[in-house]
Amino acid sequence: MILKIIFCLIFGYLMGCFSTAYFVGRLNKIDIRKYGSGNMGTTNALRTLGAKAGAMTLIGDVIKAVIAILLVKFIFFPDNANLDLLAIYTGLGVVIGHNYPFWLKFKGGKGMAATGGVMASIDPMIIPIGLPLFVLAILVTKYVSVGSLVIAVLFPIWIAIRHPGDLHMLIVSLIFMALAIIKHRSNIKRILNGTENKIGQRVKIEK
């Protein structure tokens, strides 16, 4: 089982290293790392390049997590008794790869779109609860980062409810939450200081 977990982590990591925002930026003839927050994720793509680029980034980051987990579930280990555990480890690898891609000097995004893809792939029942919570948190606060953190906290709560007594899966879900908090440290500071960018604010690109 340990070797399967290691395989899933490595496979997930390699899938996660596909940095959608980087390629979307290149399609628009910019290096997105040099604009806005420098983060390679949906929010920075949205603020820097607009709604279309933001949507492309969001979809790409969600899909890479979904594809990785589907491959593990239906191609690599379809008959494994611990399939949900292997799936969540694959998802963890995807998020780590997204956040720390080796080919971009380990500077990536914050992993929330990928985390959303992981959550939906492991248990689609979370979608009608998680998605409205995410949207509501943003509508109320005007901060995407708050919505992201709400989802990060929801993940281990959901795992505890849907997999009662499964300490292993709970621990892995808590790692997802910890990664999100670590990646959002600067956002949390700015929120507390009242300087966090609100949704809808754009970044000026020098031509």
Task: Explain how this protein is built.
The protein is an all-alpha fold. It has one domain. Helix content is 70%, strand content 0%. It contains 10 helices and no strands. The protein has helices spanning 2-16, 20-27, 42-49, 51-76, 83-99, 112-122, 127-141, 144-162, 167-183, 185-193. Helix 4 packs parallel to helix 6 and helix 5 runs antiparallel to helix 6. The longest helix has 26 residues, at 51-76. It is globular, with a radius of gyration of 17 Å.
Task: Describe the structure using short key phrases.
207 residues, mainly alpha, 70% helix
Give me a quick take on this structure:
By secondary structure, this protein is mainly α. It has helices at about 1-15, 20-25, 40-50, 50-75, 85-100, 110-120, 125-140, 145-160, 165-185, 185-195.
Q: Quick one: how many beta strands?
A: 0
**Class of secondary structure makeup:** mainly alpha
β-strand percent reads under 5%
Overall tally of domains: 1
Major sheet: size, sense and barrel closure? none
What string, H for helix and E for strand, traces the elements in order?
Answer: HHHHHHHHHH
Share in helix: over 70%
Gap between N and C termini, in Å? 53 Å
